[in-house]
Design brief:
Low-confidence stretches: 1-9, 173-178, 183-189, 283-288, 646-658
Number of strands: 39
Structural class: alpha+beta
Shape: globular
Strand order of the largest sheet: 32-33-35-34-36-37-38-39
Length: 750
């Protein structure tokens, strides 16, 4: 970490208080609500929040409790133990804590609200390995009778075999010799040299999967603390997202084919199906048993949840994503009657009304999403916003839940010509028309609110106050503006813009294209953009063609056109954003992007050499030729460079498939053509590279190859590589240092 500047020696106290380091420390202190739950036995609810700990370089968790009637806090926040791999609280107020021990084993603790800790069970590594929490495979569900809990963990690994070498003379100690009265024995004896063999290589599920190799299911008996592996799961699949059936006699889970593992995190183009697994006799090792495939006709089925009355199973499908080859796209919503019958039909919910597309940002959960057995509320991306959608499961009629407009705690959007509203993310429901929701906007840090549905009326109530350390800057504003296409009347996306107050001298403009490319820059709070604004920069977050939230037609224009359409749209976003914010075009401009956003940054400084004064690239894609054989998602290179799979099939000479066989010379030429490295000779812009050495999605060599190419051409390039960091560069100290370097670099070059 760059050390904080001491006010007494280097700068006036007032200047130090407003320095980037001081503001970064304030940002690090901000708590973020991540989950919540109601406890029906007592009129209360509880919220789990996270907070960065710069000293320990970890995300700390703590729990705040509230009285459900008065909405006042109960007691003081309770910290979550740092060695806890999993913490879950049941509606009956039973808490499960799974801890990782030093010797690769786990300890499970069961806590009762009235009687304290009731059970402690040691789980050796022969039962299971790493627990999967906060990954795609996470389960963490309680049975309706509150006697069982299901979670996902790694299947136990086989013990390494012993290798035996040639006999080796091992000298005996003098003490051993003196104690040996047998005069015929020698001072040394023969011993076999043995060692544990190296384990066979096992392919994981890639970046941010928690090192997943063989995720499977385990149940915890809350009455006696016993842990058992669930039987009946077929070979050749990884499973997770499990939930109990309404009668608690079985589990419904998602199963992914693991015969050829590719990256799973943020990749919804992986074949999956729903399994029904009966809960019969179990043992700690698990064994082959019965199961039923619930979605045999659908190539993608995941995120199962039961209606409150137990008569309907609802789930998501990414069959269209799978068919297109892109890694993220819109989901479809499906239902089936429960219990299932031989002739039971799966029904697709015909989404229409406020939108035809569903861009879910999380899993479906009974305890979060249902209003009635026939009605759900979900969190979804809608253009450049994160909104709540109210969906009728029979008709498909969809409406937008009115956003919170409390301008005392949220900054209202201004100067917008596109949909603009604050972030609204569901956390929990009491099952009776009340939800806990996280709110934020680009200027205002996350807060907690209560959303109530009374008849047909939605009502908001703020529960937590915004942090006084990071208030919205006076006079600054944010908004959402449309992104013009080749013809000005054609809208191809939108941008989220942030502008300092009119009386503040704007230092420059920072263009921030998102990664993906099939994701979205949304109107919510981000530490980086808030820091840029505080330091006097205007910010433009570009949602170019290919972004989610704008319909499938615009999204699917990008595959096969990366490095061209997205680059064109970013330049248009910069121009239209500056015009809308009334910013002088002569001001210096910079680009800040990670992953595909870094890909675009490298393309922009190569294709528009005189446009930017500085470029900050985080784990950027720079060379698809080398990335295709090293990333955990080689199919990404294929689809984005060549187009959808059907187009690739029609070009056998350019076919790459999923990386299972070498690309042809024509394919290599195409991969080079769409890569930023093809334009490296034109680069004039000073570049700051921020790289994670453990990145499996965009391997660190991508940035290092680009650095070498720039350095050999005498270009201004500065590089920092962070050991132990993955694609997101998310550890608190890493984030702090990256943003510190970024502000320094911007101030030097702009």
């Amino acid at each position: 970490i760059m050390p904080p500047v001491a006010p007494s020696t280097s700068m006036p106290a007032a200047a130090a208080a407003n320095s980037p380091h001081a503001f970064l420390r304030k940002l690090a202190k901000l708590p973020t609500p991540t989950s919540a739950w109601f406890t029906p036995r007592s009129p209360s609810f509880h919220v789990h929040l996270t907070q960065k700990d710069l000293h320990a370089n970890i995300q700390r968790g703590f729990i705040r409790s509230f009285d459900a009637r008065s909405l006042s806090p109960l007691g003081i926040p309770r910290p979550v133990e740092q060695d806890a791999a999993l913490v879950a609280v049941s509606p009956h107020n039973t808490t499960v804590v799974l801890k990782k021990n030093e010797k690769k084993s786990h300890t499970v603790e069961i806590w009762d609200a009235e009687y304290g800790r009731t059970h402690v069970t040691e789980i050796p590594e022969t039962v299971h390995g790493t627990v999967h929490a906060a990954t795609t495979f996470e389960s963490n569900a309680f049975s309706s009778c509150a006697k069982m809990f299901v979670y996902t963990a790694e299947a136990p690994k086989c013990k390494p075999t012993k290798h035996v070498g040639n006999p080796q003379e091992i000298p005996r100690s003098s003490e051993d010799s003196s104690n040996n009265n047998d005069s015929s024995s020698s001072s040394s004896s023969s011993a076999l040299l043995t060692w544990d063999s190296t384990r066979q290589y096992e392919q994981t599920w890639g970046e941010a999967s928690g090192g997943a190799v063989k995720p499977t299911l385990f149940t915890l008996n809350l009455e006696d603390g016993t842990v058992n592996r669930v039987q009946g799961i077929p070979d050749g699949v990884a499973v997770g997202q499990a939930t109990f059936t309404p009668d608690d006699k079985a589990l419904v889970c998602t199963a992914w084919d693991d015969t050829s593992k590719l990256g799973i995190t943020f990749c919804f183009n992986r074949q999956s199906r729903l399994l029904l697994v009966p809960l019969g006799s179990q043992d700690s090792q698990g064994s082959q048993g019965s199961h039923q495939i619930l979605s045999p006709t659908i190539p993608s089925a995941l995120s199962p949840a039961f209606s409150p009355d137990g008569k309907r199973l609802v789930f998501l499908s990414h069959a269209d994503t799978l068919a297109s080859g892109v890694h993220m796209s819109d989901a479809t919503l499906h239902t089936m009657p429960w219990p299932p019958k031989d002739d039971a039909t799966i029904t697709k919910v015909p989404i229409h009304g406020a939108t035809e597309y569903l861009y879910m940002t999380g899993r479906l959960k009974t305890e979060v999403n249902f209003v009635t057995p026939n009605r759900i509320v979900v969190t979804s991306i809608l253009r450049s916003c994160i909104a709540l959608l109210d969906i009728d499961l029979t008709s498909g009629e969809t409406s937008i839940v009115p956003p919170c407009d409390d301008n005392e705690v949220l900054a209202a959007p201004k100067n917008s010509d596109d949909l603009a509203q604050c972030e609204s993310s569901l956390l929990a429901s009491d099952g009776d028309g009340t939800w806990l929701v996280r709110l934020s906007d680009p200027l205002s840090p996350p807060i907690l609110a209560k959303l109530t549905l009374d008849d047909a009326s939605w009502t908001w109530q703020i529960l937590t106050k915004p942090s006084p350390d990071v208030p919205p800057p006076k006079g600054a504003y944010w908004g959402c503006i449309s992104l013009p296409g080749e013809e000005e009347s054609l809208v191809v996306g939108s941008s989220v813009v942030l502008r300092p107050a009119a009386d503040v001298e704007v230092k420059g403009v920072i263009l921030l294209p998102h990664g993906g490319p099939h994701t979205t820059s949304t109107a919510q709070f981000f530490a980086s953009t808030r820091l840029f604004l505080e330091m006097g920069y205007a910010v433009i977050l570009a949602n170019y063609r290919g972004s989610l939230g704008f319909g499938r037609q615009l999204q699917m224009q990008l595959p096969g056109n990366v490095g061209r359409l997205d680059v064109r749209d970013c330049v248009a976003a910069l121009e239209s954003g500056m015009k809308k914010m009334d910013i002088d075009d002569a001001l210096p401009k910079a680009i800040f992007g990670g992953s595909h956003g870094g890909f675009l940054g490298a393309h922009l400084v190569g294709q528009h050499a005189d446009l930017f004064k500085a470029a900050i690239l985080r784990n950027p894609v720079t060379n698809l030729v080398s990335m295709a054989s090293t990333t955990d998602i080689p199919d990404w290179c294929c689809v984005e460079a060549f187009g959808k799979p059907a187009d690739v099939e029609q070009q056998p000479s350019a076919r790459m498939g999923d990386g299972s066989f070498p690309p042809s010379p024509e394919a290599l030429a195409r991969l080079h053509e769409v890569s930023p490295i093809a334009h490296v000779d034109n680069v004039k812009t000073p570049i700051l590279l921020l790289l994670g050495s453990g990145d499996e999605r965009v391997p660190v060599e991508q940035g290092l190859q680009y650095r070498r190419a720039l350095a050999m051409r005498g270009q201004d390039v500065e590089t920092y590589q962070y050991d132990g960091e993955g694609h997101s560069l998310a550890k608190p100290q890493t984030e702090f240092e990256c943003l510190s370097h970024t502000i320094r670099f911007l101030d030097e070059k702009m």
